[in-house]
Amino acid sequence: MKSSIAVVVLAAGAGTRMKSSLPKVLHPLANRPMIQHVLDNAAALKPTRIVGVIAPGAKDVAAAFAPYPTVVQKKPLGTGHAAKAALGALRGHTGPVLVVFGDAPLVTAASLQRLVTTCAKERAAVGVLGFVAHDPSPYGRLIVQRGILEKIVESKDADEIEKTVDFCNSGVMCLDGRLIAGLLGGIKNNNVKREFYLTDAVALARAAGHKAIAVEGDEAEFQGINSRAELAVAERALQQRLRAAAMVAGVTMIDPDTVWLSADTRFAADVTIGPSVRFGPGVEIAAEVEIKAFCDIEGVRIGRGASIGPFARIRPGSDVAENVHIGNFVELKATRMGRGAKANHLAYLGDADIGAASNIGAGTIAVNYDGFGKWRTVVADDVFVGSNSSLVAPVHIGKGANVTAGSVVTEDVPAGALAFGRARQVTKKGRAAPLRAKLKARAAAAKRGKKK
Ligand code: UD1
Ligand code: CA
């Protein structure tokens, strides 16, 4: 029988190098807090419990862990001390306990699972994910002899020979749930940093005659985030993963490196995305949609066959139905576009509801804000709104109505009506030339006056 897994997430470190009032693990990656990535990967293993270890007073961090419980590490006395704080929450758990770091969001669920599975197969009391480091200097070194992990030596405590080892500790550790309390209880702080190192659990297990192992993984997964520069490096790595996954799922990207995704961006097959497109949170795109270059899209469901951009901006609360056309320099905010509706050039549609097959002319503005309140513009199906019209909300334009170009619409328009909201044109025959002569003379007189 497979035993149940528990996961402990350490997130009580100070994170001072971020120089931020926002706790480090709440900094976003792909528009989702760092800690959420760690929790999603942990949850993929279907553990029976996940416990967070957080610093005193870190209310926002506790909220980000919800629905999972958190315990408080009263003082940051080291990773071993932090893990020990979770023991109470692990009571009665006899399966493997995975300890992961809240600031290492790139570790994949597959790697976590591999560690747990290998530990079970090898009957190891302790297992760690290790990697061959480009630059081992910041990491704990894994001292392996004849396939057995004998101990982990922190960089600051390593002797000259140990310093030459490039097989390093990722920080991810799997401990036997029946032994964890005894192992953590034995950790002392007799080291350079005067900290209780979780890594000492390895030597303690070996001294008690238990097996310990290291499972090798890819360095790219184990980058921890301590600074804004490392945050940017992690963002790039995560974006590359998200783009690759989208392409595998059938999305064409003309220039993938310039497409920025959110962790929750969802695509159906045969979507095409042009260069320099950003997807904010909450976007779901159906099949055969084309997003042309330089669009910024957030909080919208886009229906099958729609065409968006170039240079379109879609803001949250929007819904774009099948076969809609949104063209250049069109902004939508909290706006629903019905099936086959079009807004092809230079429009602002905020808090609007545009019916199926309606056409919104170039330069149309849904005037949604009066300085105090926001109001809705409702355009029914099959309406034609001529160019450069202002629809002053709240306003309703009935089915099949026609609003002439340049109109300022302040009153509801009934279905099928033709609405003019503009001054009537006055035409004076033969008066162009005299007007020009008059204007020319006036300009010349002004010039002479300046010279004097
Ligand atoms: C740790 C490992 C090191 C490994 C490296 C990988 C130890 C002793 N060392 O070192 O072998 O190569 O990670 O990046 O474990 N934390 C707490 N409470 C504390 C201290 C830390 O919750 O009192 C949390 C931090 O929030 C962080 C994680 O533990 O999420 C790691 O702590 P950190 O101080 O960064 O460990 P390193 O010195 O980098
Ligand atoms: Ca670290």
Q: What brief labels describe this structure?
A:
452 residues, alpha/beta, Spore Coat Polysaccharide Biosynthesis Protein SpsA, Chain A, UDP N-Acetylglucosamine Acyltransferase, domain 1, 2 domains, 13-stranded parallel β-sheet, 8-stranded parallel β-sheet, elongated, binds uridine-diphosphate-N-acetylglucosamine
Number of helices: 9
Number of strands: 35
In CATH, the architecture of the largest domain is Alpha-Beta Complex
Reading off the top of the CATH hierarchy, the class of the largest domain is best stated as: Alpha Beta
The computed structural class is alpha/beta
Query: How much β-strand is present in the residues?
Result: 25-35%
Q: How many domains, in number, for the residues?
A: 2
User: Roughly how many Å is the radius of gyration?
Assistant: 31 Å
Q: What would the CATH topology of the largest domain be?
A: Spore Coat Polysaccharide Biosynthesis Protein SpsA, Chain A
The hetero molecules present are: uridine-diphosphate-N-acetylglucosamine, calcium ion
Biggest β-sheet: count, sense, barrel?
13 strands, parallel
Q: What is the terminal-to-terminal distance? A: 104 Å
Taken from the alpha-carbon principal axes, the silhouette is elongated
Poorly predicted ranges: none
Query: Considering DSSP H and I runs of 4 or more, what fraction of the residues is helical?
Result: 10-25%
Task: Give the overall average pLDDT.
Answer: 97
Q: Can you tell me the CATH superfamily of the largest domain?
A: Spore Coat Polysaccharide Biosynthesis Protein SpsA, Chain A
